[in-house]
Design brief:
- The chain is 73% helix and 0% strand.
- The chain has 8 helices and no strands.
- Helix 2 packs across helix 3, helix 2 packs across helix 4 and helix 5 crosses helix 8.
- The radius of gyration is 18 Å and the shape is globular.
Length: 191
Amino acid sequence: MTSPPEDSAARTASEAQARLLRAALGDRAAFEALYRSTSSALLAVCLRLMPDRAEAEDVLQDAFVAIWHKADQYDPQKASAMTWLIAIVRNKAIDRMRSGGYAFKRASIELPEELDDGEPTPAARAEAVSEAELLQTCMEALEPRRRQLIRTAFYEGTTYEELAQRTGSPVGSVKSWIRRGLLQLRACLEQ
């Protein structure tokens, strides 16, 4: 007898969380299992920010070293395990791009429809589609300038100064547009 899709998705999320919490206690086997179950999705995040595969793989390796050292800082009350892992990988990729004079990718900043996490279930896919549709709806409700600034800042990792330079606007205005856009986005997502 198979379990319902919701149970499978919840089980996968709880397994990642349990592995991360055990890794925080120094459990190498749990860390290895965490790596095997999440590395493909996390590599996709790296490749989205930096198209050079070798560079992305190096960033992923650095990120997993940081995850091993920072696992005890993970708080399941604040974020899911995957959200926490993605944040570390994304920040490592942005740090690498900034420190190495990496030419920021200027391609489209739309997300791939789905990241392969190894075991997607129909329920997990349906939930992700629902959340993506809500996010897309809320993003479309933003004024175009705010929407583009938020997308560029998040997906390219650009600073306020870089955004101001690219748009020919004062830094203070760019900060205000982004702040107001994020507040509007949060209000929309919380409805």
